[in-house]
């Protein structure tokens, strides 16, 4: 590949690159236009058929400039770059997420709207878990969809009584990472390559990307709420670890099917 003029970057020794990004440059007229691609899932044609992921294709130069800085880090990794929009591991993920959680804590104390909605594969980082416990104890309502490992214990009085956790396992692997913060009714929404695990926060190159477009924000909130209403493939996580299926008297909702119908309806209308 190098013989054909392709510049290969081999990353940073001992630091796994787990982010999923792409920058495309194209001549349009007399100008060079750049497009960016940030995803929660891998560039893998096989798993794309069986995984559920979120992908942002954007021409927003604010995001693209930050993505370029991540690639610059691969070339000159002795420098620690700063980012205006992206949240990156291993340098910034924990403090940035703590700041977002702290905003919800302050807002609930002020009587403002405050909630957190998270969707991920796993959560096992104890500092992050303790921070969510802190938010719960101040009254922040937290809804979490965690497919796999969950070291957080929801529903414990005076510890996690404001946290609910469910897991969805269905035909397609739930692989998306989505972080939603109420921000006093002006939601801050991110998609991420990172789970809330120590390896993702401290030991990998990860990218958490903000969503600025209002329509896309609403889509992500809608799809989270579809998942949360699932009463077919959802299991409820609790201290007893019995993982009972969620059952209620509402109409049957299988979230993967309903998400498909949601987007089909948007196409038709």
Plain-language structure description:
The chain is an alpha/beta fold. It has one domain: Endonuclease, Chain A, CATH 3.30.870.10. The chain has helices spanning 61-75, 93-109, 126-137, 198-202, 214-228, 255-268; strands at residues 16-17, 21-28, 31-39, 51-52, 55-58, 87-89, 115-120, 141-146, 163-168, 173-174, 178-181, 188-192, 204-210, 234-237. The strands form 3 sheets. Strands 1, 6, 7, 8, 9, 11, 12, 13 and 14 form a 9-stranded mixed β-sheet that branches. Strands 2-3-5 form a 3-stranded antiparallel β-sheet, covered by helices on one side. A two-stranded parallel ribbon has the order 4-10. Strand 11 and strand 12 form a beta hairpin. Helix 5 (214-228) runs antiparallel to helix 6.
Question: What would a concise description of this structure say?
Answer:
This protein has 269 residues and is α/β, with parallel strands linked by helices. The protein has six helices and 14 strands. The chain has a single domain (2-268), classed as Endonuclease, Chain A (2-Layer Sandwich).
H/E series: EEEEEHEHEHEEEEEHEHEH
Tell me the distance between the termini.
45 Å
| Mean pLDDT over all positions | 95
Structural class call reads: alpha/beta
What is the CATH class name? Alpha Beta
Q: Main beta sheet, described?
A: 9 strands, mixed
The total number of structural domains is 1
What is the percent of helical residues? 25-40%
Helices, by number, come to 6
Level-2 CATH architecture: 2-Layer Sandwich
């Amino acid at each position: 590949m190098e013989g054909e003029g392709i510049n290969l970057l081999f990353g940073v020794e001992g630091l796994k690159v787990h982010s999923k990004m792409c920058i495309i440059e194209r001549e349009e007229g007399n100008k060079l236009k750049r497009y960016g691609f940030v995803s929660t899932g891998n560039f893998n044609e096989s798993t794309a058929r069986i995984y559920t992921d979120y992908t942002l294709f954007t021409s927003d130069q604010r995001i693209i400039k930050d993505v370029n800085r991540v690639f610059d880090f691969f070339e000159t990794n002795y420098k620690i770059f700063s980012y205006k929009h992206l949240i990156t591991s291993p340098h910034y993920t924990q403090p940035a997420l703590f700041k977002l959680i702290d905003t919800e804590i302050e807002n609930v104390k002020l009587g403002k709207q405050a909630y957190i909605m998270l969707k991920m594969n796993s959560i096992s980082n104890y500092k992050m878990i303790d921070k969510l416990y802190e938010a719960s104890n101040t009254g922040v309502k937290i809804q979490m969809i965690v497919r796999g490992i969950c070291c957080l214990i929801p529903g414990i009085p005076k510890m996690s009584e404001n946290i609910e956790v469910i897991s969805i396992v269905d035909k397609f692997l739930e692989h998306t990472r989505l972080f939603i913060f109420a921000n006093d009714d002006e939601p801050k929404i991110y998609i991420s390559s990172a789970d809330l695990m120590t390896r993702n926060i401290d030991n990998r190159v990860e990218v958490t990307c903000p969503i600025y477009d209002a329509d896309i924000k609403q889509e992500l909130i809608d799809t989270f709420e579809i998942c949360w209403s699932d009463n077919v493939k959802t299991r409820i996580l609790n201290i007893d670890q019995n993982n009972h299926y969620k059952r209620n008297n509402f109409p049957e909702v299988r979230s993967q099917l309903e998400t498909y119908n949601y987007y089909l309806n948007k196409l038709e209308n």
